[in-house]
Design goal:
Structural class: mainly alpha
Largest sheet: none
Number of helices: 4
Number of strands: 0
Shape: elongated
Distance between the termini: 51 Å
Strand content: under 5%
Helix content: over 70%
Oligomer: single chain
């Protein structure tokens, strides 16, 4: 379906809302959605170095198993 068609359907659905709280909730949801989609990702030298290190560790099998991470996370939460 084309974008204008989808927007039209969305507008129709919004027009059906009667409760001001529902409209407010939708506005907050859409605002958060848009802010997440427009967040600019900045590649800093530090971030790129961390990614390179993580990739190198993964390629040499120096990984932390999921179960170990879950166990450690539970310990952190209970501290």
């Amino acid at each position: 379906m084309a974008t204008p068609d989808l927007k039209s359907i969305l507008h129709q659905q919004i027009d059906r809302l009667e409760d001001p709280k529902d409209v407010q909730d939708l506005l907050l949801t859409v605002s958060e959605f848009i802010s997440q989609r427009t967040t600019v990702f900045t590649e800093t030298p530090e971030l790129l170095a961390q990614l390179e290190q993580a990739l190198s560790s993964a390629q040499t099998s120096h990984l932390t198993l999921h179960d170990q991470v879950a166990t450690e996370a539970k310990q952190w939460i209970t501290r």
